Amino acid sequence: MNNALIDPNTDPVRHEDLRALAELDGPVVSLLIPTHRGGPETVNDHRQLKPLLDDARAQLADSDADADALLAEVAALADDEPFWQRQADALAVFASPSGTRWFRTTLDGQAQVSVGDHANLRPLLPLVADDMPFLLLAVSQDQVRLFEGDRTSLSELDLGDAPASTDDSDYYTREPQFQHQTGDRAPAHGHSTGENVVRDSFLRDVAKAINTRFTNDDRPLILAAVDEHRGGLRDHLPNVQLLDDTVSGNPDHLTPAQLHEKAWPLASAEADKRHNDLLERFGENLGTGRATHDSAKISQDSEHGRVDTLVLTTLALRENTLGDSSKAADLDAAVAHTLRNSGTVDVIPAFNEERAAGAIFRF
Taking the complete model, does pTM exceed 0.85, yes or no? Predict the structure, then answer.
C-alpha cells in the first residue's frame, strides 16, 4: 500500500487525539512552544522550555502533584538536540499524571503554559476543525485505488470487494456466453461495443462495492477519473457523500502525494461549506432553547452531556483573551466535557455578535 505524509515534520492531530487528551486526569500542564524548521534558530528553541517549566512548577505548587515527576519527560526534551532539529512551527505538549504527549504542528503564536484540571486544547482546535477527512477513489480501466486522507496525509486502503481493473471484474462470471466469445479476455481497449459493455459493468461493480462499504460514512468521497468514467460511477453511488467536484484526468500516473495535492482543495472547500451549514443551524436553534451563547449554561450542560456541538470563535482560542483565567478554565472544561461525551467542537472566525462561544444542544 502507498502512503503519503505530506509534511514529515508535523504530527497529525485528529479528533481521536483530542478525545484522548480530553480524558486526561488533572492536573494537566499544557505548553505551546514556537519552533523553527531549520537553521541556527533551532539551537535556541529548547531554551524557551526552561522558563515555561518554571512557570508550570509555580502553578503546580498549589496542587498535590509531584511537579518534578509530572514534568520529567518534558524536562528531558531540553537536552535532546536531535529532537529540536526535527520540528515544524510550534510544539504542543501535554503532561499529566498518566504521561506526556506532544505534537509538532503548523500553529503560530507566542509561547504559553497553563495548568488546570483539563488540558488546554484550544490552540489545537483549528487543526482539527479546519481539517476534513475524506475518501478518494481513483479509477481507470487498468487500475483502481482507494484512499483515505486528511489535510496532512493520504493512505491507500484495501479495495475489499471492488475489482482492481476490468480484468478483475466479475462480468464474465455473470455473462458466460460473452466470456466464450472473447476467449476469456476483454476486447482490446478502443474496440466497439464489447469493450463499452465490459467497461460499464466494471464501473458499476466498483461503484456498488464502494457504495455498500461506505454507506454510513460521513466523509466526502472524491472521484479521480476521466470524464467518460465519472458518470458510470456516480449513477451507482447514491448512499455516500459524493462531491460534485472531481480530480480530472487519468489518475494512473499520479503518486499519492500528487493525488493529495489535487484532492485536498476539494475537501477543504467541503469543510468550509460544513462550517457555514453549522452557523446556519446554530442561528435556527438560537432562541428555541436548543442553542445558547450563555457561558455558564454551556459549562454546566457540557458536563452533563447535553452539548452536541460546541462552537468557539478564534477569539476564544487565544490564551488570556477571555477576561480572566477562570473563564479560560471554564472554557477548557467545556471543551473537555463535550469531547468526553462524544460531542463535536468546531471553530469559526466570529459570531454576528461579539461572543466567544456558543453551543447546540442534543435535547
Answer: no
